[in-house]
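Risk register update: the risk of archive-format incompatibility is retired. Evidence:
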Amino acid sequence: MATSVYADLYHRLLEHKTYDSGIEVFTAIIEQIPDDIEGYIYRAQLYARQQKLKEALADIRRAIQLSPQSGYAHYVHGDIRRRMVDFKEAVVAYTRAITYGYVDAYNNRGVILIKLRKYRAAYGDFTRAIHHNPQLSRAYHNRGLVRCHLKDYKGAIRDLTIAINKDSTYRRSYVVLGCAYSAIGKKEQARNALCFFVKKGGVLSAEIQNMLHDMGGCRETSSQSVRGNPLSSVGERGDMPDTKPLQSFPESSV
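Archived output:
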């Protein structure tokens, strides 16, 4: 099979969520061509989708053994380590992917660096991701989130606005945008962003829902149930005029 055929097959399997069938297909390919690196890579990703991380790790290690300089293999290794919550090894794997030319790994490594609270290093990764792919809306979203952690709220608003303009369906950007506006005391803009998120079916955390209530709320929030807090804790924030400081921001995105 050509590379494009593998990729097309993999994405069709993801679309229909037919992971078991996909594993069977790639297993058959590997049995016919035991040194087929792509068979191992794509089967590893399907295993990871099923949270069969031991099997996924074994497959991606075999792929790297067959082709140590495959940037994509190291990238997938990083994704598997991320699912395993092994952030240290995820950073190592993404760094190797970048070393071997797979620049998509900048965004994913940046996400892990946020989890490790290495915000300035994460900022650098998202900036590099944007340099290599200016259309990558989630990199702008993630850099906006990092700017919030660094208390650069105006810079965050710029990045988040770009992310939304590039992909208006990316709902999480509206939540971070609302928090950034709130941080500089622009309650009306904050309320508009958060209400738009709710209108599109988003569910706010209790903390942000309370903040929205203090701003006057919006009709859509009255029927929203509050689920488990989807936010990741962060450190102290700077002064926020006329607002209650949030203790957390929404998650970054791979």
